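dumping this here so i dont lose it
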C-alpha cells in the first residue's frame, strides 16, 4: 500500500487572525492577549501577506518605547518581513522537517500572493496525534 502524503491544506488553520500594517501596536498586543495568540499576520487588501508580528516583536518594541517615551505606532514599524511561507500543496512531513530546523513557530500558507491559512507547530502536532502523517489512497481505503 502506497501512502498518499497529507498536504498542508489538510491541517492548516483557515482564516487566521490578521491585522493591517497601520494597526497600532497597542491594539495588536490587546488582540494577542485577549485571543491568547502568539502572533498575527499582517495583510494588505486582497489578503496579500506583508509580514508577521509576534510576541517577540511586541516585546522588542518595549525598550524603544521606554527610551523615546512613546508606546505605540503602526505595526509596520515592528513586524517581521519578509515572511517564510509554505504552499497548501506542500507535504506536511517536509514542512515539519523545515519547521524543526527553523526558529519559526508558524508558517503562513499562501497561494500565489494570497494568504489562505496558517500552519503552526500546534497544527502539525494535531495532525500527528490524529495519525494523519500519511493516509492510504482513496481507492484502497474505500475497499475496507
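and the seq i came up w/
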Amino acid at each position: 500500500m502506497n501512502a498518499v502524503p497529507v498536504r498542508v491544506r489538510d491541517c492548516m488553520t483557515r482564516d487566521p487572525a490578521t491585522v493591517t500594517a497601520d494597526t497600532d501596536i497597542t491594539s495588536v498586543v490587546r488582540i494577542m492577549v485577549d485571543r491568547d495568540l502568539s502572533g498575527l499576520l499582517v495583510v494588505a487588501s486582497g489578503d496579500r501577506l506583508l509580514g508577521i508580528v509576534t510576541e517577540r516583536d511586541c516585546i522588542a518594541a518595549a525598550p524603544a518605547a521606554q527610551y523615546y517615551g512613546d508606546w505605540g505606532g503602526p505595526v509596520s514599524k515592528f513586524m517581521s518581513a519578509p515572511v517564510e511561507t509554505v504552499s497548501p500543496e506542500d507535504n506536511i512531513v517536509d514542512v515539519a522537517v523545515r519547521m524543526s530546523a527553523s526558529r519559526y513557530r508558524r508558517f503562513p500558507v499562501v497561494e500565489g500572493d494570497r494568504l489562505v491559512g496558517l500552519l503552526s507547530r500546534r497544527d502539525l502536532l494535531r495532525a500527528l496525534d490524529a495519525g494523519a502523517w500519511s493516509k492510504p489512497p482513496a481507492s484502497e481505503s474505500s475497499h475496507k
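The two ends are 13 Å apart (CA to CA).
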